[in-house]
Amino acid sequence: MPRTTCRADLYEDLAQGKLALRAAFRRSPEQPVEAGARIITPNAASEAVYLLGGGWAYRAREWPDGRRAITDIYVPGDVIGLETALVSRPEDTVAALTPLTLQAIDTRAALPRLLGQRTVALFVNWLLCEQQRRVGRLAAAIARFDAEGRLAIMLLELYERLRRRELITALGYTMPLTQQQIGDHLGLTLVHVNRVLRSLRERRIVNIDRHVVTIRDMARLQSLAGRGKAPAAPRAGAAAGLSAETALLAAASAGDGLTRE
Amino acid sequence: MPRTTCRADLYEDLAQGKLALRAAFRRSPEQPVEAGARIITPNAASEAVYLLGGGWAYRAREWPDGRRAITDIYVPGDVIGLETALVSRPEDTVAALTPLTLQAIDTRAALPRLLGQRTVALFVNWLLCEQQRRVGRLAAAIARFDAEGRLAIMLLELYERLRRRELITALGYTMPLTQQQIGDHLGLTLVHVNRVLRSLRERRIVNIDRHVVTIRDMARLQSLAGRGKAPAAPRAGAAAGLSAETALLAAASAGDGLTRE
DNA sequence: CGGAGGCTTGAGCGCCATCAACGAGTGTGG
DNA sequence: CCACACTCGTTGATGGCGCTCAAGCCTCCG
Lengths: 261, 261
What we know:
2 copies of one chain form a homodimer. The first copy, chain A, has 261 residues and is an alpha+beta fold. Chain A is built from 8 helices and 13 strands. Chain A has helices at residues 11-26, 110-115, 118-144, 147-164, 179-186, 190-202, 218-224, 244-252; strands at 5-7, 31-33, 38-40, 48-53, 57-62, 68-74, 79-80, 93-96, 100-106, 172-174, 206-209, 212-215, 241-243. In chain A, the strands form 4 sheets. In chain A, strands 2-9-4-7 form a 4-stranded antiparallel sheet, covered by helices on one side. Chain A starts with a strand and ends in a 9-residue tail after the last helix. Mean pLDDT of chain A is 85; it is low at 230-261. Chains A and B meet through strand 1, strand 6, helix 3 and helix 5 of A and strand 1, strand 6, helix 2, helix 4 and helix 6 of B. Chain A binds a DNA duplex (30 and 30 nucleotides) through helix 6.
């Protein structure tokens, strides 16, 4: 289970940086974005870093001939646009998958000042690393797993991300991607995505019906994803490493709406 | 051409951060590493961030059944280990592709202090973003290009990286990857890599002989890589954006050995 | 109620994996 | 000096996963 832990000696700093970043986001009004709208467009400097609230988005690379690759998926609580904040002409598009709301931190004035705080800089680094690990896992999955494995990996990854954010509790969640978008994410065609999903449904491993994912056989799903019942590697004790997501969540869940990294 | 430019108003800060980071690396002795040795191993906290001097390395994810995916390639001048510095148990391996030398910055003591400098934090962020863009491009290439396109993309990307670092001048370079490793990088088998390379050679597009890459028809290679003779998008003028790599290089190439970001 | 977007299913084929064998280059030890 | 092992590269034969093309269906919405 790809559960990333931060070094224990950094935990305090990270938690504090997280709080400071959250506070900065909270100062900005929630702006609504409609489904399908673009948040960041290629070749145009982006003006802000965003906190995604209550909706999904994706990052994609598009080619003139219509090919498209979705290289990351954002769920509520994610920070969007860090990787393009320093760049004058981003290569990727970021667009809304559902209607959503954003809170912004201005890239020019506010962000550099925030990065001047050591703890914020650390936390932003942490977020960037987290994203990079996600993209790395995606690249590895596409490179070395067949369609079934890729789907299993994607469904598990989303499940775990939502769960860690405490956005779901049971073995199901809503995943607002069309089969075309799933294909663009996993390097498949929508036709083949459809066939594999049917196979998973018929074997009672996962059910996807109108964007509602229901995991029916977690063990087999994990084994399809290449996690051969790995005994989850002995969790590092409290002294050696903290589960960053949960720990940070605990620190931040002061009962307000923002929370969650 | 994936030439990343930084926002003009950040150039000064980035350049200064780069110099500070360079200085910190230079304080450490060059330690040699032999080909094939591991620099970072999964599930073991890494102790340092490294500057790679005079050799190549790669980052890979490995599965118990022997599958492997190489998710990034490091060339001389690259910084290694930033993405695992904050993490107690990295998921990836980093290993030497050739004999090489490293200079280290201690993760526990020195790095947090360096990140306390605003410009260094900015520059580290920049490096992380650069890496993330590379991985994103790789994922997109594997997802949406056939074997020939992937090879073209890889060969061009390496060519441009080396060129920007001024490590090569003509249309050729040495690429110390075996065909097995190329396959692991692009999600192919070594057999198929071999066949595609032969095809490219026979059509006089690229020649690879004992790890020496020679580009013989740049235009066709670019078109295979999906860059349909795109007129390189009007370069932003000096006022709007600076070519970060070259500009930073210019600032840093004080003629010493370290240089090059 | 017509149109659009998304989902489903079938038929055929091509890219690439797999299996297998062999050659070339290099280092090692008798 | 040669036998041997080992790694890397090369090439052929065969088959399967997933793409392409095509058609029909469902659902939502104006």
